[in-house]
Every structure is written in C-alpha cells, then in structure tokens.
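Title: Prediction job returns without error message
Component: structure pipeline
Severity: low
Priority: P3
Assignee: unassigned

Description:
Job completed but the reporter wants confirmation the result is attached to the right record. Sequence as submitted:
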Amino acid sequence: MPSIQKKMYAPLSSAKVAFIGLGVMGFPMAGHLAQAGHHVTVYNRTHSKALAWQKEFGNHVSTTPAEAAKDADFVMFCVGNDDDLREVIQGENGALRHAKAGSLFIDHTTASANVAREMAIVCGEKSVGFMDAPISGGQSGAEAGKLSIMCGGSDEHFKKALPYLEHYGTIIELLGDTGSGQLCKMVNQICVVSVIQGLAEALAFGENAGLDMQRVVKVIGGGAASSWQMHNRSQTMLDREFDFGFAVDWVRKDLGLVLNEARNNGARLPITALIDQLYAQVQEQGGGRLDSSSLITLLGKSQAPQS
C-alpha cells in the first residue's frame, strides 16, 4: 500500500525544501512535497527510515540536519519534543549551522509555546524566519494530505508558507504570534482526550448492559453523539485492538504540555488532569505504545492492555 494518496497540486514554483523527522506523520508529509515537484532533502535520526523514504520518493537524503538545511528555502521539522527540536535546530549539527539568510523554518512538532518563542529568537538572530505549525489529523490525514495546521507567527511568514503547507493540509489557520499554533494544538488535545474518555465510558456501559454495540453506534452515530473518534475508533475499541495510531506515551507528553501551560495561565482543567492520570494507569499496565483509544481497557469487561 502506498504511504501517501495522490493529491492535485496547485502550480507552484519549485523550491528547495528540507524535511527533518520522518515519523508516521513526517514521512508522508515530506512525500507530498516531493510529489509536488519540489527539491526535497530529508533527515531522520534513524537513517534507514530516510533511505526508505528516498526509495519511495527519490530526491535526497542527508546525514545531519545542517547538511539537509543547506541552501534550503524552507526547512520543516516534525520531531518528538522540545529538546529534540532544540537539538535539530541549534545543536552542533543543527539546521541553523548552514541555513541561508531569508529561509523559513516551519515546525510541525507538538511542543511547548515557550520553545516556539525561544526558537523564533534564535532563528531571528541568524536572519532566518520561524513559524510554529503543529498538525492534527493523524497518520491517515497525513497520507491523504488533509491535515489541519495551526500556525503561530507573522503574517508575512504565513503567506510565504501557505502554498507549501497546502500540499499536505486542507484547514490551515494563522492563530496569532509565535506560540499561538502550539496553544491551539493544546486546545485540540483537551478536546480529543475528553471525547475518547466519554466514548470509552459509553461503549463499556453499553457492553455491560448487554446491548448490540454495533447497532448502538450505527444509530447514535448519526445524531448529536457523533464524533471523529466514534466513526474511526469505536469498532476497534469494541474489538480491543490498539496496535496502531497515536501512542499513549505521546498523549501523556502532550497532556504534560497542556497542564503545564494551564498552571501558567490560570486555566482550570480538572477533567483533563483526571484523564492524564487514567492514561498513566494504561502506561503502568504496559500499554504505553497502544493507541490513545485504549482508555477503554480500564473499564467494563476489558482486559489489562498488552503492548
């Protein structure tokens, strides 16, 4: 099965692009840029993944972020966390080492708003632009080129980046100054985990009541209870299948960012804090690599998760 679905790409002048980080999201995102006709150079910490990308999409592979970013017009990042981002941007072999003045760094990592502001300052000192642009839509959205992209930065940088972001995004918004994209992603994560927990409780309740849950989901899925999670995860939750998707370990990383930001801005998040602790229980039972929908394993007739 191909890793990306074909998109109709709007005519656009070919650009030199570096893409740093080829996980389940970055791999297809970089692929869309290559298939749109851009000159793409990729870097991934596990080099074999970069070679697999090159085998599928052609173009170029580098052994350091610095080498990948050399002479690039745009440098996209999709890595793990704040420290990973700092390393690939300003580390000894980071992208800033050979970045050209006037280029634009676009960070798709889900990270803190603080590190976005920090990197914007560091990049600005080298006459390099920076925009935080975390993503939502999962692996399927990345493969289809239908991600939501939440941007923080200047209007100038956003307008410059937008035609390239449209290669893998369909809903793309500038939310405000640097860091605003990351704050929007935190809003997204609060909503997502709340829906997952509600769905898990509803499915477990229905099972315990002896209902045919396929029929239940069919009838309520067309009404006010409908959600992306219901349509895409209810059956696998009922089947207790979780060997895919967004891992619990990454959910907890994201919720840590959310709860830390809430402490800073005074927001009260009692339900989010509770769900974070429920995910901690899944981790304690060995389910750190399971999909985020594995919350149902703590309820009803479920068994302890196995990673």
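Comment from assignee: result matches the submitted record. The chain has a mean pLDDT of 95.
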